[in-house]
Design goal:
The complex is a heterodimer of chains A (about 110) and B (about 110). Chain A has about 110 residues and is mainly beta. Helices cover about 0% and strands about 55% of the residues of chain A. Chain A has no helices and 11 strands. In chain A, strands 2, 4, 5, 9, 10 and 11 form a 6-stranded mixed β-sheet that branches. Chain A has a 5-stranded antiparallel β-sheet with strand order 1-3-8-7-6, with no helix packed on it. In chain A, strand 9 and strand 10 form a beta hairpin. Chain A is globular, with a radius of gyration of 13 Å. The relative contact order of chain A is 0.34. By secondary structure, chain B is an all-beta fold. Chain B is about 0% helix and about 55% strand. In chain B, the strands form 2 sheets. In chain B, strands 2, 4, 5, 6, 9, 10 and 11 form a 7-stranded mixed β-sheet that branches. A 4-stranded antiparallel β-sheet of chain B has the order 1-3-8-7, with no helix packed on it. In chain B, strand 4 and strand 5 form a beta hairpin. Classes of the chains: A mainly beta (about 110), B mainly beta (about 110). At the A-B interface, strand 4, strand 5, strand 9 and strand 10 of A face strand 5 and strand 10 of B.
């Protein structure tokens, strides 16, 4: 049972435009959410996170939005750069369990 | 600091064999988690070790086991390999086990079962 879902396997965006990656979850007990980026032949790299007490967290070009009522979060990258091309994984955890539940990933391609 | 290292990076085995994968966490990190990544399934949690004790276990059969040594290095063992065990196995370490502590991943071991 996939508790964290990324319904778009791929996304293509022009350089300089906004990239929006989406993620949905089913478990209302999740209280911490993260985004990881993965390049081929490398492990996932932590990008940005958000606690369930917040609805937005920003770090440079990356912003994560959380909508708890809809059980939905999104990652915005502005402006997108060719180096952002990678697979992005959404992950969630809950207090007491601590292990991460990952989505299946979205492959982002930023076209120069 | 050196990152998380995993050995070997690539492995080919046949059905019925067993395999042992190794993970060395970032220096000072005491928690090690293992994940399996397969196409279409994303990363699925196998287990987590902290101070040589298994804290948490995912929904995998008993053929998958692990352990952690006093220096925090961890090994994962899969016995009686099946074709479906072909995957990228990722190890992640973090300093402690508080919620929100960032996990740092190694490059993974790619296992192919023939």
């Amino acid at each position: 049972d996939q508790q964290v879902k990324q319904n778009s396997p791929s996304l293509s965006v022009q350089e300089g435009r906004i990239s929006i990656l989406n993620c949905d979850y089913t478990n209302s007990m999740f209280d911490y959410f993260l985004w990881y980026k993965k390049y081929p032949a490398e492990g996932p790299t932590f990008l940005i996170s958000i606690s369930s007490i917040k609805d937005k967290n920003e770090d440079g070009r990356f912003t994560v939005f959380l909508n708890k009522s809809a059980k939905h979060l999104s990652l915005h990258i502005v402006p997108s750069q060719p180096g952002d091309s990678a697979v992005y994984f959404c992950a969630a955890s809950r207090t007491g369990a601590n292990n991460l539940f990952f989505g299946t990933g979205t492959r982002l391609t930023v076209i120069p | 600091k050196a990152g998380v290292t995993q050995t070997p990076r690539y492995l080919i085995k046949t059905r019925g064999q067993q395999v042992t994968l190794s993970c060395s966490p970032i220096s000072g990190h005491r928690s090690v988690s293992w994940y399996q990544q397969t196409p279409g399934q994303g990363l699925q949690f196998l287990f987590e070790y902290f101070s040589e004790t298994q804290r948490n276990k995912g929904n995998f059969p008993g053929r998958f086991s692990g352990r952690q040594f006093s220096n925090s290095r961890s090994e994962m063992n899969v016995s009686t390999l099946e074709l479906g065990d072909s995957a990228l196995y990722l190890c992640a370490s973090r300093g402690g086990v508080q919620p929100g502590e960032t996990q740092y991943f190694g490059p993974g071991t790619r296992l192919l079962v023939l």
